[in-house]
Amino acid sequence: MTRSMANPLVKALATGEPEGYAALYDRLGRSMLRVARTMLHSSSDAEDAVQDVFVELVRHRDRLAQVRDLDAYLFAMLRNAVLRRIERQRTEQQRVRQIRPTSVKTQADYSADELASALDSLPPEQREVIALKVDGGLTFAQIAAILDVNPNTAASRYRYALEKLRQVLE
Amino acid sequence: MRPESISKELLELENRLRNRSADEPLTHLRNRVLGAVATELAVPRQSALSPQWDGGWWAAVAAGVLIVLNLSMVCASQNEFSVRPSRGAQQQITTELQAVRQLEAQQEGLFK
């Protein structure tokens, strides 16, 4: 038995037990949704991304035996799902711009609170590290594994992101 | 692990971020996600030994055999099957033909 299969939750997921997936959603669903919302600026896209992750997890449950850190694995899957949706959003925005060249702000843009606006103004890689740390509650080691960087790099990227956010808010 | 030299201001900002208002995941999302999971779990998994895959495999083999047969028949129709003697055999045939003609000439002489 591999190390990850010793974890009862991983075993339940790998053997396709619905209760395992329900338990996983109850444990991480909230933070996953928050991370996806921060990165995508869209609740519906964020919900779709979370669902994508769970469906992918079921499809590739035979890979779970190789997983060392389930949380990091899940957030890495979420990141990929979010990046795919960001790419789709870009394509949609380009299509809208072609139809309507002038920039038109939606009601949601005006009603967004100060902090959310400040977060939106950050570069994607800084917003991503804030989302994973604050909304996902991950450690820098886990964030480093997801972003494929050194843990110190993840920590310093987070600090720079907070500093940038503070400057924007001033 | 905390990033080094993180100031009090940044810690306050971090707390503000953590406590910012965000819609909690709705019950409908839980139902939706777990519904999608149940649907996906109900899909039969296809392994290398499943009958469906075997059917596909044999269909692919049969298609391949038909293509090879077809190609070989096309090649065969463009081939020339007439048998030509080798150079040595040709000389032998010429020699024997001359001998036959001489015999014919002799026969004609006998009956004149």
What does this structure look like?
The complex is a heterodimer of chains A (170) and B (112). Chain A is built from nine helices and no strands. By secondary structure, chain A is mainly alpha-helical. Chain A has a single domain, classed as Arc Repressor Mutant, subunit A (Orthogonal Bundle). Chain A is globular. With 112 residues, chain B is mainly alpha-helical. The radius of gyration of chain B is 45 Å and the shape is rod-shaped. At the A-B interface, helix 2, helix 3, helix 6, helix 7 and helix 9 of A face helix 1 and helix 2 of B.
Determine the fraction of residues in helical runs of chain A and give it as a percent range.
over 70%
Broad structural category of chain B: mainly alpha
Radius of gyration of chain A, taken over Cα atoms and rounded to an integer in Å: 18 Å
Q: Uncertain regions of chain A: pLDDT < 50 for 5+ in a row?
A: 101-112
Per DSSP, the total helix count of chain A is 9
Task: Count the beta strands of chain B.
Answer: 0
Distance between termini of chain B? Answer: 128 Å
User: Which sheet architecture does the biggest sheet of chain A show?
Assistant: none
Helix share bin of chain B: over 70%
What characteristic shape of chain B results from the CA principal axes? rod-shaped
CATH topology of chain A: Arc Repressor Mutant, subunit A
